[in-house]
Amino acid sequence: MDNEFKHSAEYMEYLNALPKEMYIKILENIFTGILVNDREGNTIYVNPAVTRHYGKRPEEMVALRNWGIWQGVVSPPAYKEMLEVRRTLFYRQMHFNSQEVLTTIINPVLDNDQELELMVSVIQENIESFDKVYEEESGISGEQESPFKNIIGESQNYMKELVLLRRASKSKTPILILGESGVGKSLIAKFIHDASDRKDQPFWAINCAAIPENLLESELFGYVPHAFTGAGGKGKKGLIQLADRGTLFLDEIGDLPLSLQAKLLYVIESGKFLPIGSETYVEADVRILTATNQNLEKLIEERKFREDLYWRINAIMSKIPPLRDRKDDIIPLAFHFLKINNQNNTIQKKFSSQFLPLLLKYHWPGNIRELKNVIDRCYILSPGYTIQPDKLPDYIFKEEDRVSNADSLNFDVMMEAYERQVVREMYRAEKTIAGVQKKLNMSQNKAYRLVKKYCADLIEK
């Protein structure tokens, strides 16, 4: 078996060791219809599920020897476009035997010369009756949503933190969330609020590093009418008051000025605060959540952070692991960001099989924020329906990745990487397909195919 998908050597050895009978048993028992044609149009495999829609048994269908037979069986037939474009196609087809309109996904299998070798069609059923649905399984209803609904994650160390935080959310005790920039501390704060008894009350968040000190004080504590030059005649409620009976999240708490740290400490201890310009304390029942990527203990030593405030906000501390320590979350997050892009655009794109393994190899110093930006970039730069590895930034899809995959190096992969390098260098120099054809002494059709395959990003530029 060729290692087309760049599996690890160990996994390839495992696949090759599986008996042929097992593969046949799997294909024959899949509920979804699967149909395979060769490049000449001959039907070479049909699983029993196809009979429901084509009205013929597999042994009858493998006798069909030309493309034209499909004209009276399904509409529209996909083979004409597949022969031309050689990429995954998504068709809504009428099956005249069953009188059903079904989605068919047609995948090309290309040979070493990138010519069509097989056409694999998968017929998607229109399922209307389910044994179990997600809302029933999770106990979610329109009236009571799970706080996990916005959490994308499967790694054990991440889920362990969430379980502890969900338990801690039931009290009013302050929680300090630690973690590198981009790990999703704001999302965790919202998770704590949604899991608490305050979930139906206000949730307010502010980044202490993003607002100047004089404005930050008025944002947090508010002010009475005409409290200072430029203050409005109606005054303003601060976030502490607006979050009464709810939750206030202070991100980047390490950047909170010392002058405001004492006032925040008083709010936590007494449940009262003094708006700017007021002589009357205002009570506020507010749950304080804080987060930082800084070392607060070091800031205490440098006299930049109050030790008494630190012990107050650190009653419960949670450290969110970086994405490099949450490898199991990279792929689900990538699909999540792809789904968002697909929902916001008219083209529904997908990842190629070679794309996702490269995400797992990278160490993601920018964490989830960096991963989102990379997926957004790849979506935008991909001209077709499939997102290929060459749309990744160079620091992720490094030149050595084009030559080998560290886990699965083989001759075909090396030769393809070499072919890619030669074609790209020649296209950069010649600027035209005709120039590549002449310099490399190849047919016009092959030059066109290789340039389209390896130089799409250069053509776009």
UniProtKB/TrEMBL annotation:
Transmembrane segments: none annotated. Signal peptide: none annotated. One of its GO terms (molecular function) is ATP binding. Pfam families: AAA_lid_14, Sigma54_activat. One of its GO terms (biological process) is regulation of DNA-templated transcription. Residues 151-380 form the Sigma-54 factor interaction domain. PANTHER family: TRANSCRIPTIONAL REGULATORY PROTEIN (PTHR32071). This is Histidine kinase. It comes from Eubacterium maltosivorans.
